[in-house]
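Format is chain and fold; as here:
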Amino acid sequence: MAATSRKDADRGAGAQLMFDYLIAGAGFSGAVLAERLAAAGKRVFLCDTRPHVGGNAYDHHDRAGILVHKYGPHIFHTNSAAVFQYLSQFTAWRSYEHRVLVAVNGQLLPMPINLDTLNRHYGLNLDAAGMTAYLASVAEPRAHVITAEDSVVSRMGRDLYTTFFRNYTKKQWGVDPSELDASVTARIPIRTNHDDRYFTDTYQAMPLHGFTAMFERMLDHPLITTSLSTDFKEAVRSTRAREVIYTGPIDSYFGYRFGPLPYRSLHFRHETLDVSRHQPVAVVNYPNDHTYSRITEFKHLTGQVHPRTSIVYETPSAEGDPYYPIPCKASAELYKRYAALAQREPHVHFAGRLGTYRYYNMDQVTAQALKLFSTLCLRDGAQGDAEALIA
């Protein structure tokens, strides 16, 4: 990977270097845009405040030699052939279908709720038709589904909502589901069969050698200069660039002019255990017990063979790095004010989860970055080049 220290980037007759783009953030958005722009012949300066590339998807081998995700589990899945094919240029894949269990009343039950979850939880023996009829009998219809609570109780009733969703959502977001937008829980499926996969996307796989290795290959280009442990403001002062792509928090870019946008953060406690296997699946959720929300065991994700195992306890928090934009009316209105400021910055492009204040999966962030790249090419009159580079 082409990497420089801050001093290295500043060398040379004491003059500032000229780049076509300065990109803030070496996560999915920044890395994809850096790679695409470099492939199109643009000189790119990529900086990140962290000492590594990959953003929140960064993984590394811990002291025991086990590949772990520093910032919690990242599982790749997508229905986009274009996104999967693009990333496949930089990694081989390990097929992996994610499964999650939820610890409730002394049992580990499949999540999302399926036929087995319902039957085991209530001691029933329903088939698909019976489950459909049962859910219809306990559902609380809503004329208008507005909140996260509405979304769940209108589909599966009060008891399942209380047992499986309410407390977990309160942990995750710090507020009651009745105060959150319906989008928080609307995408949670209910399955009237035995399918216990967490995702049903066409493409489900993990980078064979890890996310970090994929990012390093992506950024290994002579036109990309990567500067880690570098603050964006410092990069702006010391690096000349015609345009900026900013993937950090949009409110931070504007100096929190209207106040900070609300985020939920996460605290991680990593442990290595002297057993080869700790839990039956990669992730176990704890909606009603403990302060942590889930435990992840990484060897399920990576397929690594090792006599020991590493896990992480994940505890949502109001303080720390921004992870999840809080989906409520007040935050949406506040973001609109910052988005209006962004429209007045013709040479600055905002991208990614933090730059556009949206909860994106990795494939969605990749797709957004590819779309922005195409827009930039079209603006510069390089439509053919954009189509060839994205294909």
Observations:
- The first strand starts at residue 3 and ends at 4.
- The chain has 15 helices and 18 strands.
